[in-house]
């Protein structure tokens, strides 16, 4: 379970470029929920995810993961509980290392690393069987360099790496946005399968309202660094993009002018 | 052509610079951390080993102390970068500059002779080998052991974490790797190797000198890049092997150039030749590709 309470963060405080990215964000994600997060550019989606991951530290507020206060912890000390897939398909893996070496890095996420061989024989079967689930034939290419794979393949492996060891929450940062439509839907399907099969708790940022309603169990919309609405269960069933827009206008008395949010 | 002694001499220095190339591979290639500390940690290793040997230490213990001193120097550079956020290149220049004074302090004078002292080489002279072959044999053993240990280290969990840190720091952090700690460890090990090289160099040359570090970085880089041109570093093992081969080729080439009277080169031209060689080694692989492309285009 993840609890974020009254998160506030301003970039460039006291300068002409002062930008309040989070203005009292609060959100509780329960065990087993798959939350999709939407919002226009500058709504604070990525900052919120970065704050949960530890890449940025908030000015004030509290972040609890499984009731443990991680507000002040740097990224690498949160990774025992927080797994992550980046938007850039090249960012989640190391192209100079082989597929098995990348997976070996992930299998030790949040654990102590020693001087024993990194790619252990007993891992290989597990690597092969998880790669098989991707259906990309990568199980026969364990020693190939990651850089030989396409963006979509690399993103699929990133997803696998994030789910190789248990975590309290899986953060997905627009992880299909940089892929072509066909690959994007493949990776999205894969995401849904992994989340359901492993009963993961996940938070997925997306730029598409359609995707936000189709995937997951709960949808949260951010605007100007705050949650404007939060729907789940019966309220969310059968909802369409135009209903979301209405909801947003009711809440804020505003209309959405971000075309990409409507069109995609 | 080269005389026998000049050949073994080149081999001997080549093997020592193989250790330097290992260190530079770690900082420049693995961690993507351009580290000039080596110009200071090489004479530091020499100074520490020389002074301890003169003080009556066992030469191997003195060499071990030189490794630790080099590691400390590397750790200082890395901490300046990681903790104080000083640009990596600048941090290493600061440490290198400071080391010049420190080395003078350690030795108490600009150079120290080791001619009458027992060194790591002394016991080997009784084996019945020729004088100039002894150091080649011993240093081959040292570099072989270092290569094996480094190779195993790079394949270990910590080693893999270090490679990820240099290749993709954001991903490394997301996998729970303390990237700052990895940089400190890597740059320390790198300079420990260079300290070892300095200690061995002082013992084989019979002296430690405060200026012996000038240009070590360039020679190490020349060895690394030259080696990579000969042995494509597709794996860690090949990359390490390339360091040794590159260092030996480099030294042989220099010895050859200095011995060939027709070219009219003298010892004082060494750094100029090195700079030219490094430039060629950096430029040529790219030039080869663009030439090939031109050729292909003409054919098509």
Can you walk through the features of this model?
The complex is a heterodimer of chains A (264) and B (300). Chain A is built from 9 helices and 10 strands. With 264 residues, chain A is of the alpha/beta class. Chain A has one domain (2-263): P-loop containing nucleotide triphosphate hydrolases (Rossmann fold, 3-Layer(aba) Sandwich), CATH 3.40.50.300. In chain A, the strands form 2 sheets. Chain A has a 6-stranded mixed β-sheet with strand order 6-7-8-3-9-10, with helices on both faces. In chain A, 33% of the residues lie in helices and 23% in strands. The relative contact order of chain A is 0.18. The mean pLDDT of chain A is 88. With 300 residues, chain B is mostly helical. Chain B has a single domain (4-299), classed as ABC transporter involved in vitamin B12 uptake, BtuC (Orthogonal Bundle), CATH 1.10.3470. Helix content of chain B is 75%, strand content 2%. Chain B is built from 11 helices and 2 strands, in the order ααααβααααβααα. A two-stranded antiparallel ribbon of chain B has the order 1-2. In chain B, α1 crosses α9 (216-230), α3 packs antiparallel against α4 (88-107) and α3 runs antiparallel to α8 (179-205). Chain B starts with a helix and ends with a helix. Chain A binds chain B through residues 53, 55, 74-77, 79-80, 83-84, 86, 91-97, 101, 104-106, 108-111, 113-119, 161, and chain B through 153, 155-161, 163-164, 167-168, 170-179.
Question: Would you summarize the structure shown here?
Answer:
The complex is a heterodimer of chains A (264) and B (300). Chain A is an alpha/beta fold and 264 residues long.
